[in-house]
Write a structure and sequence with these properties.
Elements (H helix, E strand, L loop, with lengths): L1 H7 L4 H13 L3 H13 L5 H13 L3 H14 L4 H13 L3 H14 L4 H13 L3 H14 L4 H13 L3 H14 L4 H10 L1
Helix pairs in contact: 1-2, 2-3, 3-4, 4-5, 5-6, 6-7, 6-8, 7-8, 8-9, 8-10, 9-10, 10-11, 10-12, 11-12
């Protein structure tokens, strides 16, 4: 049905997205890419289309192409924080935390209270070897967000990296108190033992 609908309305992205999603869900990432790629070239492309194409590329193991696509999406939609943070995360995962720091700091210049960006920046600072900078960010962030389980988990990881196992345990415990359903604090506590 979706194939016929897509053929009948080739310029309508909605049935194409549904068909591509179906193909991706059924393990046909290349087929999903073939359907969605033409829509990302048009002027009507949306961030969701870029994200979907990224998922298709990643499912095919084409990581570098997916990273290039994220960079294009971040360039094309500079107002879209999620695209810029996805690029920063990708850079961290690929071993380039220095460029990641610059992107995240740019996001935070516009939105200093953005929780995921702050947490990602702490991780990036840690990856570039700036433990003091990461701890300072953690202190400031925890002051503003004392009930963020993720902030306490990140703080715990920083403390563990600094060799403060007791402090890390306290931070993981606090994270577990805030969000008992999150596995991260429990895994962190287990890793400390």
């Amino acid at each position: 049905y979706l194939s016929r609908l897509t053929a009948r309305y080739p310029n309508n992205p909605q049935p194409a997205l549904l068909l591509a999603q179906t193909r991706l869900n059924n393990g046909d990432a290349a087929g999903a890419e073939d359907i969605i790629r033409p829509f990302t070239a048009g002027t009507d492309a949306t961030p969701a289309m870029f994200e979907f194409l990224r998922q298709s590329l990643m499912a095919q193991g084409r990581r570098s192409e997916a990273q290039e696509l994220i960079a294009r999406a971040a360039e094309r939609f500079p107002e879209l924080v999620s695209a810029r943070l996805a690029l920063a995360q990708q850079l961290q995962n690929d071993g380039n935390p220095t460029d990641s720091v610059a992107i995240i700091e740019d996001v935070l210049a516009d939105q200093p209270e953005h929780e995921p960006a702050n947490l990602l920046l702490m991780r990036a600072k840690l990856l570039v070897g700036d433990l003091d900078g990461a701890m300072a960010l953690s202190d400031a962030f925890l002051e503003q967000h004392p009930d963020s389980a993720m902030a306490h988990t990140t703080r715990a990881a920083l403390l563990a990296q600094a060799g403060d196992i007791e402090g890390a345990g306290v931070a993981f415990e606090r994270a577990r108190e805030i969000d008992p359903t999150s596995p991260r604090s429990g895994l962190g506590l287990a890793a400390l033992e």
